[in-house]
Fold this protein.
Amino acid sequence: MRKEREMPRTFGQKLKYYRQLRGYSCRDVARLADIDAGYVNKMEKCVRRAPSYPILRNLANALRVSVADLIDIEVPEEKPVPNIQEVLVSTEYLLNGKLPSMEVRENLLAVIQTILDCEWVKNTKHTDTFKIMDKVNQFLNSLKH
């Protein structure tokens, strides 16, 4: 009997992060990786078993990243220090003593990204504050589920 390949919780989030970073839809990635778009979507949601190495390689090529960027393995070469968004999608962490759901992780990432995207100058502070408050509200509400 074939042993099921477990998909790390971070794999789907990494796949989605790199896809969005490139401005691709699931269909774009599927076309570039020569796989089904529904499969890409299911991998992002972690509802499929881990893909085989050939599919991982195709996904990495489509997203212009290394296979090591998609899965949790050590790479012997020295890598640059990752930005906070990469850290949040690449590692497991606890919030209030529990592993956060994918929704909570994505909402936390959205809070940080919104803060980083703010201009925070005299003319935009008011609207920037509301943008941040909205994302914080979404994050806190997702913690309640």
Remarks:
- The two ends are 37 Å apart (CA to CA).
